[in-house]
Amino acid sequence: MNDALRDYVAGLEALARRLGLAYFPVDFELVPSSLMTEIAVYGLPVRMPHWSFGVRYIHQLVRQAMGHSRIFEVMFPGDPCRAYLMDGNTLAENTLVAAHVLGHADFARNNALFARFHEMAGGNIIEMAASHARRIDRAIAEEGLARVEAVLDAALALESHVDVTQPLHRAPYPAEPPQQTPAAPDAFRARFERLPGAPARAAPAARERPPLPPYPEPDLLWFIAQYGPDLAPWERDVFLAVRAESLYFYPVFACQIMNEGWASYWHARLLREADFLPQDLYVSAIKAHSDVVRPFAADEQVALAVNPYHLGFALWERIVEREGLAHARRVRCEEDDFGFVRNYLDRETVESLDLFVWEQKNDGEIRVRSRDLAAVREAILAPKYNYGAPRVFVRALALDGSLELEHDAATDGRGLDPARARAVLGYVRRVWRRPVRLTTVDARGAKIQLDA
Amino acid sequence: MTERASGMTAQTPWYELFSRGARDWLRHNQKVREAVRANLPELLAGADLITHPQDRTVLVPVRFLEHARFRLADAESHAGAGQGKGEAGAVLRPASPRGAPAAGGAGREGNEIRFVLELKVDEIVDWLWEELALPDLKPKRGAALDEPDYVREGWDRRGARARLDRRRTVKEAVKRRAMQTAPLPFTNDDLRFRQLVRRATPAVNAAVIFALDVSGSMQEAERRLAKTFFFFALQGVRRRYAKVETVFLAHAVDAWEFPEAQFFQVAGGGGTIASSVFRLAREQLARRFDPARYNAYLFYASDGENAAEDRAAAAQLLAELAAQLNYVGYVETDGARFRPHASAMAEIFAELKARGLPVGAARLASLDDVWTAIRLFFREQATA
Which of A124, A171, A392, B181 has its CA 20 to 30 A from that of A21? Predict the structure, then answer.
């Protein structure tokens, strides 16, 4: 089976290159389902230990046991890319999955967002994450589990609160605001200053400490690592490690529909054009394909979620059909899901795919709310804004070292869940070691302050 | 286009060495145990736990711990994108008949998985005594030095073969061989035998009499409090004594003995004459638990009401009991009710305590007070 798969993959790669896919080499590895489960849970083959992963692990095992979740492949973009295939899957499935991975590899190398993060991280995230895990293991040996866990509680709770527009290795704020260079003397200024009644020149303002942060800072992990008054070096290191991994996950998160759709488009096309595949293998592989890209489970007529494989696949097929492959390649370079959905999900597609927006009331009733194009686009994109997290900023680092956070409730539309927010503040407080405050709004929209 | 070909491998068994998922899951469970331990009284209040806790375990259903994140508060309604047929306004899922929480929870959180934690009662009690830093019970001073028994004491070079102490013998042999130049492996001089001595041991039996007021004024909640208190009081006694016998007495106007299973279900009515139960306790004590051989305890739970004409009799009987018992603990289960003066029973106990008898009284309003009461009684009996 291995030999057969190896041959097919070599054939698929040759075909992919002929069709113009350009990617970093891919290392395929056949692994048992236990490792696949862990990769799905941790997001990476080797990652720092934390009890919350244990909870996700059990949830995943339960879902798999109930047949709700099946993992086909996990692919880590990089140079080389790493792809893990499940050794228990059939040859047909793994052939399909290998073709799918080639699509991902092409996407990851050429998409601008992926390329920027690849550039920053150096294309070896798996090794980087493993070395983070190792450093954290060493910290546990030196500092004790309880202390390291407290830091991880805080850092992982803030995992999505990074500024994805900033570089991985981000410099501290400039120490002082740039000095105002005195304007060169000129005739106008000289006359202006001689005008009668002109206010006395203000004495040069006392050198004030520039406010910290100079603007509301969304990169909580970075700010804490950089400016936490009482953090030990190894604690800063943990925050930065979590931030680096979080930044790595961002392109995957922000391009999920495009990326899965692109990979699905290519696995379908590669398989269709791979004349070296036996007919029966092709048929079973295409059956697996239609299971993956279908909109809803076999016995359902309606889905309350949009399958990104299905949506992305449909959009890419349409783009290629209407505007050609060259144009599709340009879209693949330039867009992320926000631009992709807004620019390419049109009324016709919404109608042909039967997309809608549903609404669930507090009594549990779910209704179709609308089939309006703009509403559908927003409903698809809503969970993706700001890395899927509420907008929380560092507003000030007070003189006594306390940390003041602010939730932008106006943009998010409502306040934070106070119990969870308090719990997070509690985690942060233990590491920050000074008071931590957060302002948000309550259910009536009145401003409230939470303390820890 | 690329310099290096893609590769394929299948044998990299590093990940077979251990499971990160299982490791983090175990750590989670450890944290759950710690959390459970912090909330024990609430968890144990409902369980039917008094008898034979040695082989009892408690199954505690627990939720997974949540690693909190910033999240928006739940809104009035919740929207998302979906796919399928249906006009705007079509109902996809009817309102749940049981109302909002169930539906909202199920709809948004997905299926919640719970698991059951098995805790040993003994373990729990050990935790508690550690936590509360309670002294062990003090057996009666001068409790008759009866029950002479053989106890191990010391070693000798001669003795019955059955009492040969092998470890000790080998040690002796090792010491001797270290000093000799051409030693024999074992000699008769190396043999060490355990010696037995006949000694009188203090009584190790204990009896606990639980008395419960079941008159009409005792509500369900108050009985639960009393039960929880009795449970932990009994655990405390069990920790100290090898063998503990229990007696369950309930009273309204008259008093009866009940088997444990029925004890907490007993509902009485009408007035309250506390002396009836003290009289019964005295009888039981005289008949079954010789004060010379038993360390006996009485725990009484009541709402504090007692018929006015019974006061003298109750006080008299309690004084008699207190003189014979190691300790008498009284819990008043109406702690939540406002009361300008001490209740009839509380007054009696205050009097007895002033006379130097080993008694104590505490009020129970909530489960937390159970700990206060337990702590008070176990500290007091140590100094009484």
Answer: A124
CB crowding B176-209: b at 16 or more within 10 Å, else e: ebeeeeeeeeeeeebbbbbbeeeeeeebbbbbbb
Residues of B in contact with A80 (CB under 8 A): 4, 6-7
pLDDT in tens, B189-229: 899 999 888 776 655 678 899 998 887 777 777 877 888 88
Confirm whether B342 is domain-assigned: yes
pTM for this model (two decimals): 0.71
Q: How many CB atoms lie within 10 A of CB B95?
A: 16
d(CA B248, CA B289): 14
Counting the structural domains of chain B, the total is 3
Residues B127 and B177 in one domain: no
Residues of the domain holding A27: 2-123+253-383
Whether residue B285 is found in the same domain as residue B272 = yes
| Domain containing residue B167 | 148-200
Whether residue A97 contacts residue A91, with contact meaning beta carbons closer than 8 Å, is answered with no
B181 touches A: beta carbon within 8 Å: no
Q: Same structural domain for residues B252 and B375?
A: yes
A364 and B95 in contact by Cβ < 8 A?
A: yes
Alpha carbon of A193: minimum distance to chain B alpha carbons (Å): 55
Q: Summarize pLDDT for A371-418 with one digit per residue, the tens.
A: 999 999 999 999 999 999 999 999 999 989 999 999 999 999 999 999
Helix runs in A112-166, H state only: 112-121, 125-143, 145-157
A349 and A240 in a single domain? The answer is: no
B10-43 pLDDT tens trace: 455 666 667 888 899 889 888 887 877 776 666 6
Q: At what angle do helices A233-254 and A145-157 cross, to 10 degrees?
A: 40
Could you tell me the two tokens for B50? 């008094």
Is residue B286 within 8 Å of residue B294, measured between CB atoms? no
CA separation for the pair A68, B301 (Å, rounded): 54
Q: Does B90 touch chain A (CB under 8 A)?
A: yes
B221 in the same domain as B182 = no
Interface of A with B in 80-139 (CB under 8 A): 80, 87
pLDDT tens-digit readout, B77-102: 888 999 988 888 888 888 766 544 43
Assess contact for B261 and B186: CB atoms under 8 A.
no
Examine the domain organization and report whether B277 and B314 are in the same domain.
Answer: yes
Residue A194 within any structural domain of the chain: no
User: Angle at Cα A266 formed by Cα A265 and Cα A270, nearest 5°?
Assistant: 130
Going from the first residue of chain A to its last (452 residues), give the mean pLDDT of each consecutive group of 10, the final group possibly shorter: 86 95 93 88 92 91 80 88 90 93 96 93 88 95 95 96 94 75 77 74 59 92 94 96 95 95 95 92 90 76 89 95 95 96 94 92 87 94 94 94 94 93 96 95 92 89
Q: How far is A113 from chain B (nearest CA, A)?
A: 21
DSSP letters, B333-360, are TTTTS--SS--HHHHHHHHHHHTT-SEE
Domain count across chain A: 2
Q: Do A416 and B4 touch (CB under 8 A)?
A: no
- A197 within some domain: no
Please check whether residues A130 and A231 belong to one and the same domain. Answer: yes
